[in-house]
Design brief:
Length: 155
């Protein structure tokens, strides 16, 4: 309800109509993109996942690169002939590094290179802005962005 009150109806409609799964080919490299996993918005696949667990992130054997987010832990792993990339989080990482993360992907028909990048930002300004906007549970948010940990993980 809090976020809905901040967004105009047109933005809510646009967000609500985004696909939950997407495939594309770039420079001959087939990609699958998910929030969490094929068919799931909630599945957790951690950086230390087994090759079998990583394999469940790929719906099509022809896919060479799977990109997803959900658990806010950026990583790049190879698994059974394809690469898995968790891009992390643009503003709420949970891997102990409170800088936002994103991935740079370079592709061509023979090679794919992936880099996870981190950028600093003014954390205290973000916390103050959340408070100014009346964000519920701003103390939990502040803990999460300062520590880069899920708020309940420290309890």
């Amino acid at each position: 309800a809090y976020t809905s009150n901040l967004l105009p109806d047109s933005d809510q409609v646009w967000l609500g109509n985004l696909p939950t799964e997407f495939t594309m080919t770039v420079d001959g490299v087939r990609l699958e993109l998910y929030h969490a996993a094929p068919g799931s918005l909630h599945q957790y696949t951690w950086p230390w996942a087994t090759p079998d667990e990583l394999g469940r992130l790929r719906a099509d054997e022809a896919t060479q690169l799977v990109l997803f987010g959900h658990m806010h832990h950026p990583f790049v792993r190879s698994a059974r002939g394809f690469t898995v990339v968790n891009v992390g989080s643009a503003g709420l990482p949970f891997d102990g590094d409170n800088r936002p993360s994103y991935a740079i992907i370079d592709t061509d028909t023979r090679h794919t290179a992936v880099q996870i990048r981190r950028v600093p930002y003014e954390i205290e300004d973000a916390i103050a802005r959340a408070g100014d906007l009346g964000m519920p549970d701003v103390d939990l948010f502040a803990h999460a962005v300062r520590k880069a940990r899920y708020p309940y993980a420290d309890e």
